[in-house]
Specification:
Length: 155
């Protein structure tokens, strides 16, 4: 009988030496190191992305083929998009979706993870700074260098 991991387990649990990590594991850990608390979500058809709810919508990160659960050695590039609350990843009208990071496949896997996480942290800081009214669902510590920024629930 084959052991099947949950996506949460694939992202966080210790892996035996015989098991290759999924691509999402590295970006998940890179985001967490920057204090960004993304969570895995099922987007349909057996595909998974990383999600963070922010004021006005949701940030989703996935591989350029829509899957974080593919083997890391098959990774091509990361894609991070902001979906305003009125839309969803399944909305055919994508005019209001914001590309936060679009990898082009030219970076190493590790560098692509870092570039994506850094772009997301900068976008979150800018997004928070431009929010002018209403309660904040999240807060980003913008006093620190972007590589050590932390995301906290606003009180």
């Amino acid at each position: 009988m084959t052991f099947v991991r949950s996506i949460e387990s694939a992202l966080t649990d210790d892996l035996p030496a015989s098991e290759s990590p999924v691509a999402g594991r590295a970006i998940y850990q890179t985001l967490r190191q920057r204090g960004l608390a993304f969570e895995p979500v099922h987007t349909g058809g057996g595909y998974f992305a990383l999600s963070l709810l922010v004021p006005g919508g949701e940030l989703l990160i996935t591989d350029d083929d829509g899957q974080i659960a593919r083997p890391a050695e098959d990774h091509h590039a990361w894609l991070a998009c902001f979906y305003p609350a009125a839309t969803s990843p399944f909305d055919p009208d994508e005019d209001d979706i914001v590309d936060v990071y679009v990898g082009d496949g030219s970076l190493s896997f590790e560098d692509d993870c870092s570039a994506c996480a850094d772009s997301v942290a900068r976008w979150l800081a800018d997004h928070q700074a431009s929010a002018t009214s209403g309660p904040l669902a999240v807060g980003l510590d913008t006093t620190a260098d972007v590589t050590s920024a932390s995301l906290v629930l606003a009180s």
